[in-house]
Design a protein that fits this description.
The complex is a heterodimer of chains A (about 240) and B (about 425). By secondary structure, chain A is an alpha/beta fold. Chain A has a domain at about 5-80 and about 155-240: Rossmann fold, CATH 3.40.50.300. Chain A has helices spanning about 45-50, 70-80, 95-105, 110-125, 140-150, 170-185, 195-200, 220-225, 230-240, and strands at about 5-15, 15-30, 30-35, 60-65, 65, 80, 155-160, 185-190, 205-210, 210-215. In chain A, helix 3 packs parallel to helix 5 and helix 5 (about 140-150) packs parallel to helix 6 (about 170-185). With about 425 residues, chain B is α/β, with parallel strands linked by helices. Chain B contains 20 helices and six strands. In chain B, the strands form two sheets. Chain B has a four-stranded mixed sheet with strand order 2-1-3-4. Chain B has a two-stranded antiparallel sheet with strand order 5-6. In chain B, helix 11 packs across helix 14. Chain B is elongated, with a radius of gyration of 31 Å. The two termini of chain B are about 45 Å apart. The chains are: A alpha/beta (about 240), B alpha/beta (about 425). The interface between A and B is medium-sized, with 33 and 24 residues.
Chain lengths: ~240, ~425
């Protein structure tokens, strides 16, 4: 099986603070891999390093064999990144936003048009796509952003807290979309501190705390290893 | 479709909001309305040009004085009273502000070689404001000058009947010449200065507006992209990061130019109303045109091109600095504070050359001012007029170098961690 993402001893240090302290794991093609852990343990920093936004202070990250530092531009051709609590351009309509992003990522009019058609379908916003984004609710905006992230069919989609702050219905719809796309072959690296969501979505889980990977396996294997039916309990036992 | 054009279009769509258009339209309207109101009011004030005359001499000389005042387009209204207090209190004079008292025995006294004093009274109202008091003061000054000149003429006619009073008053009139860069023309220095000032009256204001507007726009654009994390999305795309920098710079520059054009229209309308009072300096300038042309004090089309280039690079320098400040901003709210490092050199470049003669200024001050790229644009019109072309060209070269350095630094910040991790914090802030 092809390795979509390979992380080796990845670290990020800000002056005296070590945000990520030597992470190592890999993600297989077509897999949904989740990094779980509470806020401030290095999940977002790790995702930003993989998304070529931050430079690691040590270790490497490679997307389909391309190094995120030495070959950053090639990595950007393969990924799509959705930051946590990201916004969109408020004065653009939903459709204008999808058009703009499709051209930015694909640079080809025909491919961009096909991607926008897919984005419109995935967003589920219908006629509201003609309205300016500033009129959208948080859930609508997040669905638009997720559609933007996946409409270009990236080989690796990096989603930071994809359902953070959303209500049950919107959260469910987004999880369902991710599942559908993964079934179609797209690889996902997501971060979350919502254990229920992670258990529903992911094929494998990496438990992270204080910048270190404490365990990495399927939800079932982790629960079996710690003799519990609850993933939250696994996390508590690992971090205590 | 060209990706730069797509980015530029997006930037313009984000920057041009309904609120912005409304603000500009409201500003234009306010400028226009104030200009019109002030102009109408001042014309009405100037039209009411009356002085109340209390002639206690009732002589041939006092009649000539009254006629001389009338000749100066001031209406002379005889006071229906015997003394000034009664004249001031008279109901028919209640709306009058300027009074003149010719004393009894004026003709006899001056003919005998003794001074006599004509008195002027100005009623200053507690609620007076605007240009009304200044108009009244000017009226008194002109009336006093006309009266003194007429009394002098009266005495000169009697003392030297073979010569005209005009000749006797100014038997050797001065001829003033100005020398500019080896060219000589018959024109007073005050006319030359008036011309230079009239040509550059709006210019620094316009440049100042453009710089502030464009700087604020680009800082807001960068800071809001950071705050909304839309920048993270763009930076993780396969887009050339230099395109992100240049498209933002270009959009801000285009909108700032359009907005400053609108502001200037409003300002022009405002100033036209305000300056409609009294003599128009442009009339004097037009009359002195041939002499000014002889001195080479005109701006040719290539001169205008140089000035335009200097202003363009001034804006670009400001945009490059503002871009970096936007990158270092914590969020959109902190932009006002973050403008300080840009405002300080801008104010120095704008204000110091107004008060300091650069040709004689201390070397340190000159160095400081010329190190600020904005100074070159503020001084460009005067330098072009005075033929200091090489100074303008070197100024543009220096501005271009500063801009290139700014863009290089911006692109560098955009390429590294600094964009997401660097924050400029003032002492005392958390």
């Amino acid at each position: 099986m092809t390795i979509a993402l390979e992380i080796k001893d990845l670290a990020k240090k800000y002056k005296d603070f070590e945000a990520v302290a030597g992470l190592s794991f890999d993600v297989r093609e077509g897999e949904i891999f989740a990094l779980v852990g509470p806020n401030g343990v290095g999940k977002s920093t790790t995702l930003k390093m993989i998304a070529t936004l931050l430079t690691p202070t040590a270790g490497t990250a490679a997307v389909f064999g391309r190094d995120t530092v030495r070959d950053a531009h090639a990595v950007r051709e393969l990924i799509s990144y959705l930051p946590e609590e990201a916004g969109a351009y408020k004065n653009l309509t939903g459709r204008d936003y999808l058009d703009f992003m499709a051209m930015v990522f694909l640079k080809d009019k025909a491919r961009a048009a096909a991607a926008v058609a897919e984005g419109e379908r995935l967003s589920g916003l219908g006629a509201r796509l003609e309205d300016k984004i500033k009129t959208y609710s948080k859930g609508m905006a997040r669905k638009l952003l997720l559609a933007r992230a996946v409409m270009i069919r990236p080989r690796l989609a990096i989603l930071d807290e994809p359902t953070s702050g959303l209500d049950i219905v919107n959260g469910y719809e987004i999880r369902k979309t991710i599942k559908e796309l993964a079934a179609g072959g797209m690889t996902f690296l997501i971060s979350s501190h919502n254990m229920g969501e992670i258990e529903f979505l992911s094929d494998r889980i990496g438990v992270i705390n204080k910048g270190r990977l404490l365990a990495c396996d399927t939800a079932a294997a982790l629960k079996a290893k710690f003799s519990t039916e609850d993933l939250e309990e696994v996390f508590i036992k690992l971090t205590q | 479709m060209n990706i730069f054009y797509i980015l530029l279009k997006k930037e313009i769509k984000e920057l041009v909001t309904r609120q912005l258009i409304f603000t500009i339209a409201a500003t234009l309207l306010v400028f226009h309305v104030i200009g019109k109101s002030v102009g109408t009011h001042n014309k009405a004030s100037a039209a009411h040009n009356t002085i109340v005359l209390l002639d206690l001499d009732r002589s041939a000389l006092s009649a000539r004085v009254a006629a001389a005042v009338r000749a100066g387009k001031t209406e002379v209204k005889p006071a229906g009273a015997g003394d000034i207090q009664a004249a001031l209190a008279a109901p028919e004079n209640i709306s009058e502000n300027s009074f003149m008292v010719i004393p009894a025995g004026l003709q006899a006294e001056v003919t005998a070689g003794r001074a006599s004093r004509i008195e002027y009274y100005s009623r200053f109202r507690k609620d007076a404001s605007g240009l009304g008091p200044a108009i009244a003061a000017s009226r008194i000054r002109r009336t006093a000058q006309a009266a003194t000149a007429e009394i002098s003429s009266w005495l000169l006619e009697r003392g030297m009947p073979s010569r005209t009073p005009a000749f006797l008053r100014d038997p050797a009139p001065a001829r003033e010449f100005a020398v500019v860069d080896g060219h000589t023309a018959e024109i007073s220095l005050s006319q030359v200065i008036g011309f230079i000032q009239s040509q550059s009256l709006f210019f620094p204001v316009a440049v100042f507006f453009i710089v502030i507007l464009s700087a604020q726009m680009i800082m807001t654009a960068v800071a809001s992209e950071k705050e909304n994390k839309t920048l993270e999305t763009l930076l993780s795309s396969p887009l050339d990061r230099r395109l992100l920098v240049t498209s933002k710079l270009a959009a801000s520059c285009l909108i700032a130019a359009a907005l400053s054009g609108a502001y200037m229209l409003g300002m022009r309308s405002f100033m036209a109303g305000v300056t409609s009072l009294g003599a128009d300096p442009s009339v004097a300038v037009a009359a002195a045109g041939p002499a000014l042309a002889q001195l080479g004090l005109t701006i040719t089309s290539s001169g205008y091109l140089l000035i335009g280039l200097s202003v363009l690079f001034c804006i670009l320098c400001a945009l490059a600095v503002a871009f970096i400040l936007g990158i270092l901003s914590e969020d959109v709210k902190s932009i006002q504070t973050m403008m300080t490092p840009l405002m300080m050199p801008l104010m120095l470049a704008y204000l110091l050359p107004i008060f300091i003669d650069m040709s004689t200024a201390h070397a340190g001050i000159k160095f400081l001012l010329y190190a600020i790229p904005f100074t070159h644009a503020f001084m460009a019109p005067q330098n072009v007029m005075m033929g200091n072309i090489s100074q303008v060209v070197w100024g543009i070269v220096y501005q271009a170098a500063v801009f290139a350095a700014g863009v290089a630094l911006s692109a560098r910040l955009f390429s590294g961690d600094a964009l997401l991790t660097l924050r400029l914090k003032w002492p005392g802030t958390k």
